[in-house]
Specification:
elongated, mainly beta, 144 residues, 28% strand
Length: 144
């Protein structure tokens, strides 16, 4: 599917320093900003004004994505193997959540956290949501 996203001029995760004390800087904001020695950089010079962060197709993000949210695999051992131990059924399983995603979105943004709204209905531009964590679990179900 196709999904374009303009992140807004106040998105501290995407733009880096925006004048607020909570602004985020990472290696991209440090290494790929305009300077006399780097005139073809992706990002403009970080400032506390929005003059370099106007709506334009250069910064339009491809927010389409695919994500593997949940996967569980299991195996029930044959009864002939476990009945000798006094067990009627033995299952082993492995499960994982948020195992994989592919997106064209800027690497520090989670595609599920885009397009959120504030309590007043306006667009939440900073996307300061806690990202999804990958989690894994393993287990054994034993029935006697």
């Amino acid at each position: 599917m196709k999904r374009d996203l303009w992140l807004g001029d106040n998105n501290t995760v995407f733009w880096g320093y925006t004048g607020q004390w909570w602004s985020a800087l990472n290696e991209t904001h440090i290494n790929d900003v305009w300077s006399e020695t780097n005139p073809n950089a992706y990002f403009p010079v970080p400032t506390n004004t929005t003059r370099s962060r106007q709506i334009q197709t250069k910064y339009l993000q491809d927010a389409s994505y695919i994500r593997l949210k949940d996967l569980t695999i299991g195996y029930t051992l044959p009864t002939s193997w476990v009945s000798k131990l006094g067990i009627s059924q033995l299952k082993i399983f492995a499960s994982g959540q948020n195992l994989w995603e592919a997106t064209g979105l800027y690497k520090y943004l989670d595609p599920d956290a885009t397009g959120d709204t504030k309590d007043d209905g306006s667009l939440e531009e900073r996307m300061t949501k806690y990202p999804f964590c990958r989690s894994y679990s393993f287990g054994i179900n034993v029935t006697f």
